[in-house]
Design goal:
Length: 142
C-alpha cells in the first residue's frame, strides 16, 4: 500500500511538471518503475522538452529508464536539428547522447569543433559567470 501511495505521488509530480521532485521520490524509495509511471514520465519529459532542453533531462531519462521511447526520440531529433540550425552544437550533442541518436561525420565534426572552442575559451578566461534567475555567480579561474 505504501508503494502505491508513493507511485501516486510520483505521478502527481510528473503531471505537475516537477521532474526533479518525481526523481527524488523514485530515488528515495528505490521504487521500481511500472508502466503507469513510465508513461507519465515520458509525457512529462516530452512536455519539458517542448519548452527547452533542461540540464535535468539526461538524469531524468536515466532515472525513469525511458531513453528508447519513440515519442522522446522524435522530440529529441527536432531539438537536435534546431540546435544545429541555431548554432548550439553542444546542446545537440547532449540531446544525441541522452537519447542514443547517432550523428553523421559532418555533425560530429561540428560538435567536436565546438567542444574544442569551449575548452580553449575556458582556458583563456579569467572567470566563469553563471546566471540563473535573479542570481549571478562568478568563479575566478586561477
Amino acid at each position: 500500500m505504501v508503494q502505491e501511495s508513493i507511485r501516486l505521488k510520483i505521478i502527481a509530480e510528473l503531471q505537475a511538471g516537477h521532474l526533479g521532485l518525481a526523481m527524488k521520490l523514485v530515488e528515495d524509495h528505490d521504487l521500481e518503475i511500472d508502466d503507469r509511471v513510465c508513461n507519465e514520465a515520458v509525457t512529462a519529459c516530452v512536455n519539458s522538452l517542448k519548452l527547452h532542453f533542461h540540464w535535468i533531462i539526461p538524469v531524468f531519462v536515466q532515472t525513469f529508464d525511458i531513453k528508447g521511447d519513440p515519442r522522446l526520440h522524435e522530440v529529441a531529433t527536432k531539438i537536435i536539428a534546431l540546435s544545429l540550425r541555431h548554432g548550439q552544437p553542444l546542446i545537440a550533442d547532449l540531446a544525441g547522447r541522452t537519447f542514443g541518436i547517432e550523428f553523421d561525420e559532418n555533425v560530429k565534426t561540428v560538435i567536436e569543433s565546438a567542444k574544442s572552442n569551449m575548452v580553449n575559451s575556458l582556458g583563456q578566461a579569467e572567470a566563469v559567470v553563471i546566471q540563473g534567475g535573479n542570481s549571478e555567480y562568478k568563479f575566478k579561474i586561477e
